[in-house]
Design brief:
- By secondary structure, the protein is mainly beta.
- Helices cover about 10% and strands about 45% of the residues.
- It is built from four helices and 38 strands.
- A hairpin with a 6-residue loop joins strand 8 and strand 9.
């Protein structure tokens, strides 16, 4: 074996630990290598928070948290820096400007959340990075309250990691609705992005959505209605980077139904889980899209507290290839919390999906969005929970699962508390999560799968105001705080065979 191969193995292991990429291919014996690979904490990660609001009445809090991880590197820090909305400097100028910025929020140790606040319409997008002990599972929650006007309500978002592809089923350019796609570039080189829109009849011509350039360390908001010639009620948006990588987030504002962030769906898959529909939901809309060449026929089921049921009149959904399908499920939960389960009726065709959930009636309505999401896995975290108003929903779509939930220390005071929940297969369990003893401020929830499952989860945060049930929902996918890294000796043995 030559020296180049040995160096490549070492470089791959280092890259996995830093970036979180866990795919390592050996020439022979790859399956054996994967089975015996060690899982190590990531050493560096990045998150990006979109520009929170254009309302002068907006009040935004940011809460950052890293759960303690065994075997994590010592030291390190996590910072959030402002990202200019438009950056026209040269490449070198962009780098210099970023280095000179004062951090908006700095976290120095895991186990305790830190928070910061912004007000008004001038709050910028934030570019964040964490290393050392702060990197594995680093989570940032952005929560904005807007008391009046279009989009009023609670607008919550998990700040997301940069990537090269995102799917957003449930966007809209309908009258009274303003949806913006926020594209943020964390890197030193410009990124080039295509934004593609798909309606019920297929692709929507949007020439100006092609080759959007995002300068280094900057953020670009794009109003979706400027990309289409006419209004569309249900749209699936595909964001794909031609070069570089970005974080993508959709902000939706409705003149009558309030506003919130519309998160990206999990990658296309034949079966999907959409957890955490509130028990008092007055209206639920399902939007799905099949990106491949085949049509998808989906079985639609609701996992209730007592078992899995078929929604009346909506037991199946046909999704044509390349077209967006929607189904209004009404008050599907009927006073009991639930989660939606999608699975193929016959052929397994990958799809993406999302829900628009409405609470309240008349002029006191408020909306949030639930994307199809991956399971809790080894560990998942959500920040910015309050002493009152947080609801944790857990669903086991298959086998019964057992999950440990830890409430962190508070941002100002409070000691961690842990509680374990068992979720029966095919059911949704909605609970008031544990609260730190002596809590002052907000806190984080960390979920760990102990046995069985898989278990999927979502957190609803309620902050009612003036009779409006203002709320937001965040899903809790695996935090990918560890990666599989092959052992050097084992790799050498494999390559020498």
């Amino acid at each position: 074996m030559n020296r180049t191969t040995v160096s490549l193995i070492a470089a791959t292991a280092a890259l996995a630990a830093v970036t979180g990429f866990a795919s390592v291919n050996a020439p022979d014996g790859g399956d054996e290598a994967a089975k015996t690979a060690k899982r190590l904490p990531v050493e560096r990660t990045s998150l990006l928070c979109p520009e929170p609001s254009t309302s002068d009445l907006a009040e935004t809090s940011y809460t950052a948290f890293t759960p303690s991880s065994g075997g994590a590197a010592s030291g390190g820090k996590a910072e959030l820096l402002p990202a200019p909305k438009v950056l026209t400097d040269t490449h070198q100028g962009a780098k210099d400007r970023t280095k000179g910025l004062k951090p908006f929020l700095t976290q120095k140790s895991p186990g305790k959340p830190v928070t910061g606040e912004e007000s008004g319409a001038e709050a910028p997008a934030l570019v964040g990075s964490a290393d050392g002990a702060l990197a594995p599972g680093w989570t940032v929650q952005q929560t904005t309250t807007v008391s009046a006007g279009s989009g009023r309500g609670v607008q919550g978002a998990n700040c997301v990691a940069p990537d090269t592809e995102f799917w957003f089923p449930g966007a809209s350019t309908a009258k009274g609705r303003s949806d913006y796609i926020h594209l943020t570039n964390p890197d030193d080189a410009a990124a080039v992005v295509d934004v593609e829109l798909y309606g019920r009849d297929g692709a929507i011509k949007a020439d100006v959505g092609q080759s959007i350039q995002i300068q280094p360390h900057s953020s670009v908001p794009v109003l979706l209605s400027t990309l289409t010639g006419k209004p569309y009620t249900n749209i699936t948006m595909h964001v794909a980077a031609r070069s570089g990588r970005v974080a993508a987030a959709v902000h939706s504002s409705d003149d009558e139904l309030g506003g919130d962030w519309l998160p990206a769906s999990v990658d296309p898959a034949p079966s999907l889980v959409l957890p955490g529909i509130p028990k008092d939901a007055t209206s639920v809309r399902l939007v799905a899209f099949a990106p491949g060449s085949d049509d998808a026929d989906l079985k639609v089921r609701l996992a209730s507290p007592t078992g899995t049921i078929t929604p009346a009149g909506n037991g199946t959904l046909h999704v044509k290839s390349g077209m967006t399908a929607a189904a209004d499920l009404g008050d599907v939960t009927k006073g009991e919390a639930g989660s939606l389960l999608l699975s193929p009726t016959e052929d397994a065709v990958p799809v993406v999906a999302g829900l628009r959930v409405t609470r309240g009636k008349g002029d006191k309505q408020e909306t949030a969005f639930i994307p199809a999401t991956s399971a809790v896995g080894d560990r998942a975290t959500v920040a910015d929970n309050r002493a009152k108003g947080s609801t944790l929903s857990l669903v086991a779509p298959g086998k019964t699962g057992r999950v440990k939930v830890t409430a962190s220390a508070g941002t100002e005071a409070g000691e961690p508390v842990t509680k374990t929940y068992t979720v029966k297969g095919g059911t949704t369990l909605a609970v008031d999560p544990p609260v730190p003893s002596g809590l002052k401020g907000s806190y984080a929830l960390t979920l760990e799968t102990e046995s069985g499952g898989p278990v999927h989860a979502a957190r609803m945060l309620e902050l009612p105001e003036n009779g409006i049930p203002m709320f937001t929902i965040q899903t809790l996918p695996d935090d990918r705080g560890t990666v599989a890294v092959p052992e050097a000796e084992q790799d050498l043995d494999v390559l020498q065979k």
